[in-house]
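Blinded run. Sample ID left blank on purpose so nobody reads anything into the name before looking at the predicted structure. Input follows.
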Amino acid sequence: MKVYILLEEVYPQCENPYSEIIGAYKTIKEAQKEQENTIQDNIENFGFVRDENASKSFKNDTIIFYNYQENWDNYIEYRIIEKEVS
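Blinded prediction complete.
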């Protein structure tokens, strides 16, 4: 059976980078929906902006920057990974 894991990789200024598993989902659509909800929450409530240069066809990997575009000192990457489990 396939599962889709939503991973958040945080690169904060002045701290060590860290990763967190947001959740595991039965379908890619569920994972993408949760990814979008998490990104929207960060944009609306915490001052992040969506990467303007992101390719629309590369929907399973997304970057958001804190406060302004291309802020490589403080950003978050979201990734959906497909895994086979038994």
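Unblinding after everyone has recorded impressions. Helices lie at 28-46.
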